Amino acid sequence: MGPVDATLTGMCLTSGATWAALASRRAPDGAWRSAARGVLGGAGAFGIALAAYDLLQIGGADLRWDELLGGGGGAVLAAAGIGLVEEGAKLAGIALALPRPSRPAAAMRATIAVAAVFAALESALTMRGAPRALAATHAALAPAAHAILSAPLGFAVAAAARRRGAWPWIPAALAASVALHALADLSLASPRFGPYGYAAALLAPVLAAFLHARRWRARSDLISPPAPPAPGAGPRRPRRSAPPAGAGG
C-alpha cells in the first residue's frame, strides 16, 4: 500500500459527504443525523468489504481486477465474487444506517448515502497515482454509479420496512445487485463492448424504478376516492332553458 494522497483523499471524502447530505436533506429526524448515519454505515460497509477480501485472500481466493481482463469463465467468477463482497457489505452498511423504526423513504436515503460513502472510500484507495482530472471525475461520479447498482437493495429494504412479509425479497435483490455489479465490472474490463454494457448495467435499475413508479401512481389513482366538494358548494341545479320567442300571455 502506497503513501496516502491527501488531495485525492480530501476530494473523495468531500464527494461522499456531499452525496450523503443530498440524500438526507429531507429526513424527518434531521438531515445531519441521517447523513451521519449514512456516513458511518458507508464506512462500516467499506471496512467489511476490506475484511472479506483479506479473508478470501487468506483462503486462497484472491479477487483481483487483473482476473477480469483475461476474459472467459474465470473473469465471470471473479466479477461475481467482487460483486457479492461489495454489495453484501453495502447491505450490511444499510442495515447499520437505518433508523429504528424505519420507513421506506429512510431505507432509500440510507442506500444512497451508504453506497456513496463506500464508493468515495474505494476511490481514495484505488485511484492513487491516476491523473488528477480522472481521479476527480471518478470521485465525483462513482458514488452515483454505486448507488444505482445498489438500487435493488434499497427497494427490497424499503418494501421490508413497509411489510414484514417482504423480507424474503432481500436475497433476490442482493442477487440482482451482484449481477449488475458484475456486469458493470466486466464491461469496464472489455475495450470493445464496455461502454454499452456499463450503460445497460446502470440503466436497468433506473428503468425499473421508473416503471414501478408509473405502476404505483396508476394504482393509486384507481383506488383513491374522489375529492370532496368545496365547503358551502351545494349540488348544481340544472339551468332552465329560456322560453321560445313569442311564447307567453
Order of helices and strands: HHHHHHHHH
The mean pLDDT is 81
Which range does the strand content fall in?
A: under 5%
In DSSP terms (H or I, runs of 4 or more residues), the helix count works out at 9
Number of strands: 0
* Strand-pairing-aware structural class: mainly alpha
Q: Which value, in Å, is the CA radius of gyration?
A: 25 Å
| Terminal residue distance | 108 Å
Question: Any overview of this molecule?
Answer:
The protein has helices at residues 6-23, 31-58, 66-69, 72-97, 104-126, 132-149, 151-162, 169-188, 194-223. It has 249 residues and is mainly α. The chain has one domain. Helix 1 packs antiparallel against helix 5, helix 1 (6-23) runs parallel beside helix 6 (132-149) and helix 5 runs antiparallel to helix 7 (151-162). The longest helix has 30 residues, at 194-223. It is 72% helix and 0% strand. It is globular.
